[in-house]
Amino acid sequence: MLKIGLTGGIASGKSTVLDFFKKKNVPYIDADVVAREVVDLGTPGLAAIRELFGDTVILDDGRLNREALGSIVFHNEEKRLQLNSCLHGFIRQRIDELSTMYEEEEAPAVIYDIPLLIEGKWYERLDTVWLVYVSPEVQVHRLMERNGYSKEDALARIQSQMLLDEKRPFADVIINNDGTPDELYIQLEKLWHEKLLPLYNK
Ligand code: ATP
Which parts of the sequence bind ATP (predicted)? Predict the structure, then answer.
């Protein structure tokens, strides 16, 4: 089973790319969904957070109080790192379980949709990394358009993350999304035919 890590930067087009492969019925694992699942009511993940941060981060109904947790870690770097390393373990475990499930189903390929794929060194566990790249000018423009940000706000958001140019060296495949949706589509069809379809026809 080919494990493909799909990543990008804010507003680079990762969801648009993933939608293409969803339509081709390529299975995928969404790290954002997993990150929510592992702190659901009654999970060991939620218990670990309660242990670390106390009852103030738990709502009356027993669920996670994201706002309270957010304001604790926003003001405290050490706590933020503690939270991240605690969650990372649970997320990794759940992603491994889902991988095993797809392996047992003999899926030819799975896409790992992980926003912090490079930062979290997920590529060490995957076979190939596909980066949805846009140049800085296009990224600013798309972010302003999609979110209604000013240029300054868009730049600040982009600069608070690892830059796409810094991610490039980690990628095996660069999907360039500077052009039109049609130009993107042509690259994706090519990837589908060259990299994925042969695995399905084995
Ligand atoms: P985020 O991770 O920030 O949610 P993303 O990387 O998943 O973003 P998308 O939501 O796929 O990015 O795309 C960002 C915006 O750019 C969307 O509004 C999308 O419709 C638009 N977009 C994507 N690709 C193109 C393109 N080739 N031409 C014009 N607009 C595009």
Answer: 11-16
